[in-house]
Structure formats: structure tokens, C-alpha cells
Amino acid sequence: MPEMTRPADAAPGALESGAPLLSVVVPVRNEAPNIGPLVEEISTALAAIRHEIVYVNDGSADNSAAVLADLAARVPTLRVLTHAVSCGQSAAIVSGVRAARGAWIATLDGDGQNDPADIPALWDFAQNEARPEAPALMVAGWRTTRRDTQVKRLSSRLANRIRARLLGDATPDTGCGLKLFPRALFLELPPFDHMHRFLPALVLRQGGRVVSRPVNHRPRLRGQSNYGTLDRLAVGITDILGVMWLQRRWKRPCLVAAPEPVSPPAP
């Protein structure tokens, strides 16, 4: 049976022997034809990295639940969580990250347009760049060659320019579903609907770093998109105003080292 989502402050089982280093979180709604091929691709791409795959079924009305249940019985690394009703992509990502056991998270869209073969390179880059004394790092995928319709490409290009100008996130493609980040960093971010489109700005607000890396982008081969151009534009304006409010209403505290104790004078 699929697992039910539950809140978690610390990665469950994180201290267990053999716990995954990396959790791949995939939110899906009505993507049944894409689930099997994508799980196989993820497993192949990450064969050399101790990992788990966390699928979050966001209230699908197709046979996604049955497909996931069958795969979970056959793929040891696959875990399934199910929302009773659809709560949106951001809520699905939050559920997946909270339930994940890996210290690092990779997110992928469930439509198969993100290429799992890009994850190892992002993983290697993050491990080389991440240092205890440096700000936490998010690696954002950058779809330099989009495999979408012209309308979708033009609308995304306009939205990215407006968002970058207003939020100052310096990220050329914040809408790319392929991202890699520490689980602990994500859990510090304020959750809200559509937050997945603003993760770079939220990470910067939290004091982290964001680096964009080119990734492959593929055409959708199966199923239909759950998003339209006009509905994304309508909510996007409100969301940008909300993130601007969050940026202005938070001052990051900077801790200073405590002074060395003064030794009393010798008698």
C-alpha cells in the first residue's frame, strides 16, 4: 500500500546503516504512462550513488496509484506517498522532502522532460562545491535548449525576465524542475502554494547560494500537461508580489563570535 504523507523535522531513518545519500523527489498528478519509464531511467542514472526514489501521487484521477503500487513491489529503492486530494506541485514536493531519508534532494518533474542522466553531474558539482563553512548550495538546472511549444518558450522567457528583475534571484531558468539541494536547507524555507517556482529566491533569502548548470530538456512523449499559459501567468503575478513581501519582511541575523573571556589579574 502507498505510504501516507506525514510531517517530519528530521529525515526518518537518516542514521540507519545504508541510508541513501540522495533522495529523488518526483511529484506527479495523472502521469501514469510516464512513471515506469522515468523510474527505470532514474535507477539507471544513479546506479553508482546510494539513493532512493520518492514519488508523491498528488491525488491523481488516472491509474497512477496502481502503476506506483506495482512498481513499489518490484523496485526496492522506490517509495510512494499519496495525497488524498490534489494539493498542487509545491505541496507534493514538500511532502516528499519531509519524508525523504537522504541528506541531499534532487527534484524532477514527473512528465519525463527532465533527464535523470543529468543528476550525477549535478551531484558531483554539489559535492565539490559544498563546504561546511560556506553557505548552503542549491544547484538549479538550466534548460538552455527548450523542447516546448513556441508559446510556452516565449511566455517562460518573459516570466523569467520579470521575475529576475523583481526578485533579483540571478537564475536564468527558475522553472526547471531539476534541482539539487540539501534537505535541511529546504526545510528552512517557508512553504506556500507554487513555492517550487521561486526556490532560488527563497534560498537566497535564507542566506544560501544558487548556481545554475545547463541540463538536457526533452519533449513530452506521453500524457498532457497539467498547466496552461494563462493560469500560470495569473497566479505568477500574485506569487511574485508575495515573494517580494517575504524578502522585505525578513532580516537575516548575523551571529558574531563571543569575546574571549578575560583572565583575572594575578594576585
TrEMBL record:
Source species, domain of life: Bacteria
Matching PANTHER family: UNDECAPRENYL-PHOSPHATE 4-DEOXY-4-FORMAMIDO-L-ARABINOSE TRANSFERASE (PTHR48090:SF3), UNDECAPRENYL-PHOSPHATE 4-DEOXY-4-FORMAMIDO-L-ARABINOSE TRANSFERASE-RELATED (PTHR48090)
Pfam families with a match to the protein in the record: Glycos_transf_2 (PF00535)
Keyword Transmembrane helix set for record: yes
EC numbers: 2.4.-.-
Protein's UniProt keywords contain Secreted: no
GO molecular function, one term: glycosyltransferase activity
Residue ranges constituting the Glycosyltransferase 2-like domain according to the UniProt record: 23-186
Keyword annotations: Cell membrane, Glycosyltransferase, Lipopolysaccharide biosynthesis, Membrane, Transferase, Transmembrane, Transmembrane helix
Protein name (database record): Glycosyltransferase family 2 protein
InterPro entries hit by this protein: Glyco_trans_2-like (IPR001173), Glycosyltransferase_2 (IPR050256), Nucleotide-diphossugar_trans (IPR029044)
Species this protein is from: Teichococcus globiformis
